[in-house]
UniProtKB/TrEMBL annotation:
Pfam families: TRAM, tRNA_U5-meth_tr. InterPro entries: NA-bd_OB-fold, SAM-dependent_MTases_sf, TRAM_dom, U5_MeTrfase_fam. The active site is at residue 319. Belongs to the class I-like SAM-binding methyltransferase superfamily. RNA M5U methyltransferase family. Residues 1-59 form the TRAM domain. Signal peptide: none annotated. Its EC number is 2.1.1.190. Keywords: Methyltransferase, S-adenosyl-L-methionine, Transferase. PANTHER family: RNA M5U METHYLTRANSFERASE, TRNA (URACIL(54)-C(5))-METHYLTRANSFERASE. It comes from Methylacidiphilum kamchatkense Kam1. It comes from the Bacteria. GO terms for molecular function: RNA methyltransferase activity. This is 23S rRNA (Uracil1939-C5)-methyltransferase. One of its GO terms (biological process) is methylation.
């Protein structure tokens, strides 16, 4: 096998991350980006690894399920989207199957029910914020796994308001000539101008309702880790006795405090440092953890604190199924995984949001 060699392959499925996989005649597994399920392709080998190869499409012999023409001229070079070449129905089926596969390992020892993916009402125009990079007169997004800037004029997954702002900024930013790449972000005026904020403007209320439903009515106290600017806190406090909300980003905490929520303690700092204090103040029998960490997941330190003080429920909102799986495995001795709800917060990209419900094992 050589780089540049051509081969014929049928794509078996699309795996998490967005690439199709198939087997070459030699028995080697091949990963092919921008392919569709069951598609028959001629591919060019681009990279050879120990146990697999990577290829790109040279020719499509038989189109796979759901293939459509991508709408964005930067698709394929910009690192943002992975599923513009598929219709939305196929993308949702693929994402559901990926979640089923990643979490199938829990089926044996947990009463796990994987629910149907919640779709975004629209797969385009949903982002309420974008981050761009500027260097040597180029303004755009990074190419996949690279610092190379792919210039763009507009972004189809961003909202109309963001695209209006982008148009205004493009010519100004292009003037920038500096030794380093500069980064800037554009946000809709409705959302806080700093720190993390949920990105899909069509699913904001739905996310809050789903988390509320998952928590359940018997819970009246919450320890919320990674609470950001109080996105879930603001909604949940309407029916909670009290919430301890821990967040390390100073500006997000400042914003959260401006909401004036009476039954909420906003605590600035790392969950690692503040959790034990909250654990000592909560009434265990009616309390739950709500965690919404960044894609790296929860640190071993936090997992160990949770394992030393398991509350009846733990609700885990995650934007990375792989770290979610890892963290559930680390919590397994105290918790059962009950439900997993995929949510398509990031249509056309390979990302999948999940809401997991874990309940404390009996007899702890
Ligand atoms: C995915 S965001 C979720 C924010 C919020 N739940 C929301 O929906 O807007 C993760 C948040 O965790 C915060 N964070 C990351 N690591 C942290 C840590 N070790 N301790 C406390 N906060 C942390 C980040 O600043 C960010 O606001």
């Amino acid at each position: 096998m050589k780089i540049g060699q051509q081969s014929v392959v049928t794509i078996e499925k699309i795996v998490y991350g967005g690439e199709g996989i198939g087997k070459l005649e030699e028995g080697l597994v091949i990963f092919v980006p921008f392919s569709a399920p069951k598609e028959k392709l001629r591919v060019i080998i681009r990279e050879i690894k120990k146990n697999y190869v990577k290829g790109t499409i040279k020719e499509i012999f038989e189109k796979g399920k759901g293939r459509v023409l991508p709408a964005c001229p930067a698709y394929g070079s910009c690192g943002g989207c992975a599923y513009q070449h598929l219709d939305y129905e196929t993308e949702l089926e693929i994402k559901q199957a990926q979640i089923e596969e990643i979490f199938s390992c829990f089926k044996k020892n947990h009463p796990l029910s994987i629910q149907n993916i919640i779709h975004s009402p629209f797969p385009y125009g949903y982002r309420n914020r974008i981050s761009l990079h500027v260097s040597n007169g180029k303004v755009g997004f990074y190419a996949k796994s690279s610092n190379r800037i792919v210039p763009i004029r507009s972004c189809l997954i961003a909202s109309e308001k963001i695209n209006v702002l982008l148009k205004k900024w493009l010519d100004q930013k292009r003037q920038y000539v500096g030794p380093k790449t500069m980064h800037f972000s554009l946000r809709e005026p409705e959302i806080p101008s700093y720190g993390f904020y949920q990105v899909n403007r069509y699913l904001l209320q739905k996310m809050r309702e789903l988390v509320d439903e998952t928590i359940g009515r018997e819970i009246s106290q919450i320890i919320e880790g990674y609470s950001g600017a109080g996105f879930f806190t603001e909604y949940l406090r309407l029916r909670m006795e009290k919430i301890y909300a821990i967040e390390e980003n100073h500006l997000s905490v400042e914003h959260a405090k401006t909401l004036g929520l009476k039954n909420v303690f906003f605590i600035e700092g790392k969950v690692e440092d503040k959790l034990a204090d909250c654990q000592s103040q909560i009434e265990t029998a009616k309390a739950a953890y709500l965690f919404d960490p960044p894609k790296e997941g929860i640190s071993k330190e936090v997992i160990s604190l949770v394992n030393s003080h398991p509350l009846p429920k733990l609700i885990y909102v995650s934007c990375n199924p792989l770290t979610l799986k890892r963290d559930i495995q680390r919590l397994e001795k105290n918790y059962l995984l009950r439900t997993l709800r995929p949510v398509d917060l990031f249509p056309k990209t390979s990302e999948i949001e999940c809401i997991a419900l874990l309940t404390r094992k009996n007899g702890i």
